[in-house]
Amino acid sequence: MKVMAFVGSGRKEGNTSKIVGAICDGIKENGHDVEIYNLSELDNKGCRACGLCQANKVEYCSINDKMTELLPKIADADCIIVGTPVYMLQVSGHTKQFLDRMFTFFIESNNTTRILPGKKYITVTCSGAPAEAFKNVTEYLNIIFGGYSKMVNAGNIIAGNLGDKDDILSQQEILKQAEEIGRKLN
Ligand SMILES: Cc1cc2nc3c(=O)[nH]c(=O)nc-3n(C[C@H](O)[C@H](O)[C@H](O)COP(=O)(O)O)c2cc1C
């Protein structure tokens, strides 16, 4: 099983990264391949709305950047993990830039996607506010991946009360939940 994990925090080794890391530890226990990417380091140039992906004029994307290199790998993966902090009430900008580039998989005529249906996905959200405050961010990701993309939800982690980068270490139950989600992935 091939798994790609994307961390949308601007801060390396922060809470999002630690929870995603715990999921990946659980996944690796079963011998699966996991690659973790920090979205802030991807030099994602952002969708230019050229329309070439939708018109099938390019395989995945006309932009020459690292994100375009990753699109075929996403197409080949069995599961993707998307972890994001809440920034200004929504997913972080790094995460949004990533989601925009997933447009290559969208088929506008029937509001669904190519290639992604049937793959698994896991989401992680982290906020400064209590976890209940930003369930809508998880719902948003579930609409994109579970709804339009018809991917299979393999877990949603919603963590709150996180300010300093190590705060999640005092919420061991969340890290255990994350490892368990990883362990159950098959
Ligand atoms: C630019 C920015 C905007 C933020 N906006 C919110 C917000 O709207 N609501 C909230 O609860 N927390 C907000 N936070 C706090 C982060 O969501 C929280 O600290 C999270 O744990 C950061 O994830 P990280 O530890 O992986 O970097 C914001 C943090 C930053 C840096």
From TrEMBL:
Keywords: Flavoprotein, FMN
Domain of life: Bacteria
InterPro entries: FMN_Rdtase-like_dom, ISF_SsuE-like
GO MF term list: oxidoreductase activity
Domain NADPH-dependent FMN reductase-like: 1-156
One Pfam family matching this protein: FMN_red
Name of the featured protein: Flavodoxin family protein
Protein source organism: Clostridium thailandense
Lineage, top ranks: Bacteria, Bacillati, Bacillota, Clostridia, Eubacteriales
